[in-house]
Amino acid sequence: MKYMMLIYADPANEPVYGTPEFEKMMAGYLSLSEKMAADGVMLAGEGLKEAETSTTLRVRGEKVETMDGPFAETKEHLGGFYLIDVPDLDAALEYAALIPSAEYGTVEVRPVMDYPDAG
């Protein structure tokens, strides 16, 4: 079953770029990515640029509206994701617990919708 692991964190709580703490966090991400690849469960994973670089779009009637920045003003921002294919939620949670940002942020683990009749 496919699961999306969405990684949220408050930028104020993240290790600062260039510090030993940042290097340790990045090494943790590299190690986790290598483990999931070796285990054959990783389908995709990327970090995202800062929330301020996003553009939010919505369609109301026939009008397309865009605005700079994220849709919601929150302390925790979506900073990255992993898409994995594992047997069940318990397995997904085991990998999610290894995400370095879980120590100071939040990881949302959500099953990916399966459309058996599509395609």
UniProtKB/TrEMBL annotation:
InterPro entries: Dimeric_a/b-barrel (IPR011008), YCII (IPR005545). Belongs to the YciI family. It holds the Pfam family YCII. This is YciI family protein. The lineage of its organism: Bacteria, Pseudomonadati, Pseudomonadota, Alphaproteobacteria, Hyphomicrobiales. It comes from Roseibium polysiphoniae. PANTHER family: BLL7171 PROTEIN, BLL7171 PROTEIN-RELATED. Residues 1-114 form the YCII-related domain. It comes from the Bacteria.
